[in-house]
């Protein structure tokens, strides 16, 4: 399910499936994109930041057209203890690899991978980014 911002409308709460992972998309070419994500973060329950949130940064192949500072994005990942993934949606191979990575994260967050929790996976992602 996709939403352009949070909070989600409450009138359909009873029809909404469980939310296992929230991927916030930030277009590196749009300051509005970052502002929208920052505003939406206030509507996410704190328990989701225990491995069930990630930031997906698109447009990284066009650094010359960058409107968002990379430090702002890295800081979001640090502040919210959530992994930051970078991709270029215009390149099919990278798009497919990113989709597969997100699917794997979703499987872990939904509890479909025995022995791996969203919290331990999130911690593993942060540790590997630090190295």
From TrEMBL:
Superkingdom of the organism of origin: Eukaryota
Gene3D superfamilies: P-loop containing nucleotide triphosphate hydrolases
Protein localization: Chromosome, Centromere; Nucleus
GO cellular component: chromosome, centromeric region; nucleus
InterPro entries xrefs: Centromere_Cenp-M (IPR020987), P-loop_NTPase (IPR027417)
Principal cellular location given in the protein's record: nucleus
UniProtKB keywords: Centromere, Chromosome, Nucleus
Classification via Pfam families: CENP-M
PANTHER family: CENTROMERE PROTEIN M
Descriptive protein name: Centromere protein M
Organism placement in taxonomy: Eukaryota, Metazoa, Chordata, Craniata, Vertebrata
């Amino acid at each position: 399910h996709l939403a352009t911002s949070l909070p989600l409308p409450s009138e359909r709460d009873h029809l909404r499936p469980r939310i296992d992972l929230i991927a916030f998309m930030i277009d590196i070419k749009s300051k509005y994109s970052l502002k929208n994500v920052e505003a939406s973060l206030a509507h996410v329950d704190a328990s989701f930041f225990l491995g069930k949130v990630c930031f997906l940064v698109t447009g990284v192949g066009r650094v010359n057209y960058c409107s968002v500072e990379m430090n702002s994005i890295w800081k979001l990942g640090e502040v919210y203890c959530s992994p930051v993934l970078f991709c270029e949606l215009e390149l099919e191979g990278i798009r497919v690899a990113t989709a597969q990575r997100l699917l794997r994260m979703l499987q872990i967050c939904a509890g479909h991978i025995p022995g791996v929790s969203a919290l331990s996976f999130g911690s593993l992602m942060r540790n590997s980014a630090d190295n």
